[in-house]
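User: Continuing from earlier, I have the next pair ready.

Assistant: Great, send them over.

User: Here they are, in order.

Assistant: Folding the first of the pair now:
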Amino acid sequence: MDRFRTVGILAAVGLMLAGCASQSVKPLVDPFPLRFPLVEAGTLEIEGHIVGQPRVQDNILYYLTREGFLTALVVPSQSVLWRSKDEHLPLSSPAVAGDISFLRDADLLRAVDAGGNPVWEFRAGGAVPADPVQAGDRVYFGDAERMFYCLDAANGKVKWRRRLQGAPLHPALIRGDTVAVAASNSVVYLLSRKGGSILSWEAIPSRVIYELAAAGGLALITSASPTIVALDLRTGKRAGQYESGPLVAGAVWSPPYVVLFIEDEDSGRQRLVFLRSR
């Protein structure tokens, strides 16, 4: 499947889920807190091979395959809701009125409104490798020169910046007062959301090749190794880990399940693995 079409479809799914999330009310108490150890609670063979990072919203998991299909799967029942060939899918979705979107062009970050009109521009010290994340009235992202930024979402002015020992690789994960950043030196940094100070860091045995996923107050870290690590975003301490097979995408959390995407080394076939607290 054409690379640019793949990116377009994944972006459309991301916009769709972001729109849904903006209108949903999050529960005050997590009814299914993730606790270790984890046990396998089911598997499901994948028709094809996953590309990009699967997304989950309201217990529906969406994943795209290089064969050109987008699949929606109901996580609690571990069953396919629908599966559609990519030519029948929209490459964009309507933006919510008043929303700001971000465009990356090497070291230049542009903010545009729902009508595509420019709002502001910001030139970083190096290429911006991953999409920025907006949380409230602030925008968070890093550049290839190991600098991590927090900007005012309204005007693009710098609120704070912090140089790290590695370049941020993926979109930041923001929960409460903490910003989790996976960097190229195989370290996950926890930064203060308010001022950018480094609260703690966790060295990972191998490169963090997939973006972090939130699981309540935990960050799920998927690296090049078959070990999934959970990091407590409040304390900075490890909450547990799970040994899996070779992974082809980052783990996702859909309470009460952690969903992994695993490829068999011999056959090349892929499957979903559903884990839950023992």
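And the other member of the pair:
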Amino acid sequence: MEALEDKVAVVTGGASGIGRALAERFARAGMKLVLADVESEPLEATAHALRTQGVQVLSSLTDVTDGEAVEALAARTLDEFGAAHVVCNNAGVAAAGPIWEHSVADWEFVLGVNLWGVIHGVRAFAPHLLAQNEGHFVNTASMAGLLSHPGMGAYNVSKQGVVAYSETLFEDLRSAGSEVGVSVLCPAFVQTAIWDAERNRPEHLRNTPDPAQEQASAAGRQLLKAVIDHAMPPSEVAEAVHDAVCEKRLYVLTHDSTRKQIAQRADNIAAGRNPGPPNADLSALQR
């Protein structure tokens, strides 16, 4: 899509972090906004801040793990604005620890938001974008969609699923002769609150309290927060997404530091080599 002015952007996870930055960038492009999130107060604060700038905003408390809720979001979007053009399936959460220690609840929590949120978003909005033969999907993956770092098993699986889903969506749209585009966003560390994703975990998916495990998880979250606090600002990620939408570009890599690692992974696969030791220096993934 080259012309965004007066079009409609839908952003899930739109109350904070990358989602809020996407909303702000698309607002500067002259778009109308639909913001969805599970956190009501941050959602309304973001919507209010944008409305004070003269932006038309529809806010919707939406759980992206619920397909019917996402379908209702699409219906509200069409009722309010008559169309949707850029659909950003951006909501995301994380769980850490050795992959064999992930509980069923961990898998359901992470896959429910990160992967099923994308699936529901495309299923709900694709008929409308295809019918108008115009629009663009932005699916938020991660560097974890292209690289498998230790201690993030459920997150890695969910994000690599998003990459595979987006690549297939791209090919299916092209095969159908559609003008609808798709981008998959694969950033490294960004200044967001994903380190505190547990705040949004539903009660029925919470693990049985284990003091030792909780202490280790808390220490891990604090380490991740320390790294994220000095990472790329969400506004830079949003700028890259804006450009990719305008250029109809599939892959959105925001951190140059990841390109060499991605190429090395591909070389290892082609050569039948095992991966080398993981890079313990996380600072290279901050910018």
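Worth noting for the second one:
The first helix runs from residue 17 to 28. Residues 133 and 179 are 5 Å apart (CA to CA).
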